Amino acid sequence: MIEAGVKLAETRRRLRECEAFALQVRLGHDLKDGPILTSVTDQPFEMSFKCSRCGVTLWFEDKGSQRWRLHAESREHGAQICRGRIVGEPIDHPISTAVAGASRR
Ligand SMILES: [Zn+2]
Which of 3, 66, 82, 97 gives 28 a disulfide partner, CB atoms 3.0 to 4.6 angstroms apart? Predict the structure, then answer.
């Protein structure tokens, strides 16, 4: 059972590194671990995260090779900016270091 727990934690970590997950974070969602669906071999094939701000639950599905994408049923919610997001909070401002570096001779 311990081994299965480690495997799940590892899979969670990989999912959190995927672009599909990063996109949701950029939309303002604060995603906490939710229920997981596993196959008979204990391999997770669908994992969910719940946003602590707006309460939306997003499901991700395994596309193989440690790549995950937003499940079709979650796309309706996942494509939207988090409604619980704090107004005025910056979402992912790209800092222009190139400009700052150019002024320094
Ligand atoms: Zn949200």
Answer: 82
How many angstroms separate the alpha carbon of residue 86 from the centre of ligand 1?
Answer: 10
Give residues whose Cβ lies within 5 Å of ion ligand 1.
29, 51, 53-54, 82
What is the distance between the alpha carbons of residues 2 and 89, in angstroms, rounded to a whole number? 40
Look up tokens 């997981």; give the residue.
36
Q: What is the pLDDT of residues 55-69, one digit of tens each?
A: 999 999 998 887 899
Q: Please name the residues in contact with 66: beta carbons below 8 A apart, sequence gap of 6 or more.
A: 14, 18
Quote the DSSP letter at residue 73.
G
| Cβ proximity of 33 and 44 under 8 Å | no
